[in-house]
TrEMBL record:
The keyword Transport applies. It comes from the Eukaryota. InterPro entries: AP3B1/2_C, AP3B_C, AP_beta, ARM-like, ARM-type_fold, Clathrin/coatomer_adapt-like_N, Clathrin_app_Ig-like_sf. One of its GO terms (cellular component) is Golgi apparatus. It holds the Pfam family Adaptin_N. This is AP-3 complex subunit beta-2. Belongs to the adaptor complexes large subunit family. Residues 476-622 form the AP-3 complex subunit beta C-terminal domain. It comes from Macaca mulatta.
Length: 757
């Protein structure tokens, strides 16, 4: 630890590099190293800033490792790298690990507190999370928004109103309590909404958790002091309910509050100061690292790891008043270490870091040439041999980890051309058995290769990796763009296309289902409306009055039959016209393309408009990120399709269905059993739910209680065959046959969820 504080800057860099290299070891070692790095990065941020990408989180990391890396990333965030850090955080929010998601939202709040220029951006991003389907994500966002609003409450009255509406839906106690505290603390900003919130909470008071009841009492007291005309009776009712509550804390709080705010003949001196007690200005909370106070323990000690003084721990001695004799540092060399050729062996030994490695730095691969990377990979592969020994696996781990941060624009453009040709997968190594799945994948996560199975949930962050043989092709890097994103990347080139026309809602309804050809009916026109319905693309708070929703129309897109037709619905809820609505230059992953709608010149207050745009998702549920631009603002938005919207219905006979199904057996077949509820036994209900979930066409079937559906993916035209055997007794069986295994797996999950609801 003394060396850490006293060493020159160059030597401190060597220490940082050594610690970063230890992150390639087992999870136990990583945990200890990250504990120390998290402490050091608070005061010596510049020590680890060059190694930022080394702390990106992988899908295989345990939860405690993820949270420690998140802590380090937050400590290292500054004005320069905050766009990259926020992009990583936005991707981490999609993880299935709820503890990790909660920690990520808290990290976003800390970044907004420490870096003032991104505070509004982070706040708008957290407001977007309030529309998330996961209640825990919404609850954690509410808690962090509450802390951020305390810094500038007067500027965010609209957000407080939006939070007040969530009291009907959010059930997490801490989130409900945070909303009530905000409304009570800033009730002067929402004078019409606050009494109504108190009325609703009074109705459900007896069923609330204790932490929520305490905040209801506080809300009632503050409204009684500021708006007693409307809330006097409500406050008395709430205090009466709390007086007989089972929890003694709530009973005591109710009696204390009644004596403090309600005037009485025997009222004490405190009653005259009730407003000062309840409505006193409160300082905004300071969001700090949990490792801030750990530096009083010696780095690397057990006490530092536990954050508690362990038995036998000895503090570092104070600095001596007089310099000790230098001879105390002389250590006698043991006899057994002496040998005549010691110096010769020392010269031949390779140092821990070579000169070339030290010069290149930790992010040397960030701007390196892709061809040189592939040559080094093939060289390491040939030297390690073809066996599956432990040394080979170690080399693969090192090669993989040393290539963090690979994602330059030059590599992406070069790989885009290669991906148009058929992929080649190495045989006999690593994950060669998954070559069928790899050939189906047409998009990748940033800075690493992931097979198509890893795209199944679309929840993994941009920097997570999966091990592959060194000689395998690397997919081009992609960038996750969202409302938390900032403008710091040059967008990729997009080929110009002819824009589709803007149509009104009424005109689209009138023309729906019509065709001018003499051929058979277009399959997609016969498809029912998607069960996804209208989705929010831009909230009116984040859009400053501009409300944008989107729907999947399932109509053929006129510009390109391989694209999904998406209807964008605009509405102006502000008091001023919105001019120049158009799509900015998109920053899309490889394979995904957008055909934007023509510019909407002006949208008057209260006016609505609908535009049609096409998106080629490349048979992937990966989100399409782009910008909605006006003359004055740019809004980062994202559209992520359900797997059922990536296909179009196909009509075929029963014999054709069986013939094609016979070609898609084995690994191309996914079968699951399910219990159908009694409400889902009729033909009409089954067909309606299946076709609403997936854009498939029904195939005639001569067997009773059996349903067959067929479709093709829009981009590649791969067949998707679905069979439901709804037996009268016992469990039903759902089978999906498809060349796209990832699409088949996701489709099975969605259909089962729709049928069993």
């Amino acid at each position: 630890q003394l060396y850490f504080h006293l060493a020159p800057k160059a030597e401190v860099g060597v220490i940082a590099k050594a610690l970063v290299r230890l992150l390639r070891s087992h999870s136990e070692v990583q945990y200890v190293v990250l504990q120390n790095v998290a402490t050091m990065s608070i005061k010596r941020r510049g020590m680890f800033e060059p190694y930022l990408k080394s702390f990106y989180i992988r899908s295989t990391d345990p939860t405690q490792i993820k949270i420690l890396k998140l802590e380090v990333l937050t400590n290292l965030a500054n004005e320069t790298n905050i766009p990259t850090v926020l992009r990583e955080f936005q991707t981490y929010i999609r993880s299935m690990d709820k503890d990790f998601v909660a920690a990520t939202i808290q990290a976003i709040g800390r970044c907004a507190t420490n870096i003032g220029r991104v505070r509004d951006t982070c706040l708008n991003g957290l407001v977007q999370l309030l529309s998330n389907r996961d209640e825990l994500v919404v609850a954690e966002s509410v808690v962090v928004i509450k802390k951020l609003l305390q810094m500038q409450p007067a500027q965010h009255g609209e957000i407080i109103k939006h939070l007040a509406k969530l009291t009907d839906n959010i059930q997490v106690p801490m989130a409900r309590a945070s909303i009530l505290w905000l409304i009570g603390e800033y009730c002067e900003h929402v004078p019409r909404i606050a009494p109504d919130v108190l009325r609703k909470m009074a109705k459900s008071f007896t069923a609330e958790e204790d932490i929520v009841k305490l905040q209801v009492i506080n809300l009632a007291a503050k409204l009684y002091l500021t708006n007693s005309k409307q809330t006097k009776l409500l406050t008395q009712y709430v205090l009466s309910l709390a007086k007989y509550d089972q929890n003694y804390d709530i009973r005591d709080r109710a009696r204390f509050t009644r004596q403090l705010i309600v005037p009485s003949e025997q009222g004490g001196a405190l009653s005259r100061h009730a407003k000062k007690l309840f409505l006193a200005p409160k300082p905004a909370p300071v969001l700090e690292s949990s490792f801030k106070d750990r530096d009083h323990f010696q780095l690397g000690s057990l006490s530092h790891l536990l954050n508690a003084k362990a038995t036998g721990y000895q503090e570092l001695p104070d600095w001596p008043e007089e310099a000790p004799d230098p001879s105390v540092r002389n250590v006698e060399v043991p006899e057994w270490t002496k040998c005549s050729n010691r110096e010769k062996r020392k010269e031949k030994e390779k140092p821990f870091y070579s000169d070339s490695e030290g010069e290149s730095g930790p992010t040397e691969s960030a701007d390196s040439d892709p061809e040189s990377e592939s040559e080094s990979d093939s060289k390491s592969s040939s030297e390690s041999g073809s066996g599956e020994s432990s040394s080979e696996s170690d080399n693969e781990d090192q090669d993989e980890d040393e290539e963090k941060g690979r994602g330059s624009e030059s590599e992406q453009s070069e790989e885009d051309g290669k991906r148009k040709t058929k992929k080649k997968v190495p045989e006999g190594k690593g994950e060669a058995s998954s070559s069928d799945e790899d050939s189906d994948s047409s998009s990748s996560t940033s800075e690493s290769e992931m097979t198509s199975e890893s795209e199944e949930e679309q929840l993994e962050p941009a920097s997570w990796r999966r091990k592959t043989p060194p000689s395998s092709k690397r997919a081009p890097a992609t960038k996750e763009i969202s409302l938390l994103d900032l403008e710091d990347f040059t967008p990729p080139s997009v080929q110009p296309v002819s824009p589709p026309a803007i149509v009104s809602t009424s005109l689209a309804a009138d023309l729906e289902g019509l065709t001018l050809t003499d051929s058979t009916l277009v399959p997609s026109l016969l498809s029912p409306v998607s069960r996804v319905g209208r989705q929010e693309l831009l909230h009116r708070v984040a859009g400053e009055g501009l409300v944008v929703d989107y729907t999947f129309s399932r109509q053929p897109f006129s510009g390109d039959p391989h694209m999904v037709s998406v209807h964008i619905h605009f509405s102006n809820s502000s008091d001023t016209p919105i001019k120049g609505l158009h799509v900015g230059t998109p920053k899309l992953p490889a394979g995904i393309s957008i055909q934007e709608f023509p510019e909407i010149e002006s949208l008057a207050p209260g006016e609505s408009a609908t535009a049609v745009m096409g998106i080629n998702f490349c048979d992937s549920t990966q989100a399409a990120n782009f910008q909605l631009c006006t003359q004055t603002r740019q809004f980062y938005v994202s559209i992520q399709p359900p797997v059922g919207e990536l296909m179009a219905p196909v009509f075929m006979s029963e014999n054709e269905f069986k013939k094609e199904q016979g070609k898609l057996m084995g690994m191309n077949e996914i079968t699951e059993k399910l219990m159908l509820p009694d409400t889902c036994r009729s033909d009409h209900v089954v067909v309606q739910k299946v076709t609403a979930t997936a854009n498939l066409g029904r195939v005639p079937c001569g067997t009773s209680d059996e349903y067959r559906f067929a479709g093709r993916t829009l981009t590649s035209g791969s067949l998707v065959l679905l069979t439901l055997d709804a037996r009268p007794a016992g469990a039903a069986q759902l089978t999906v046959n498809s060349e796209k295994m990832v699409i088949g797996t996701m489709l099975v999950k969605d259909v089962i969820q729709a049928l069993t609801q």
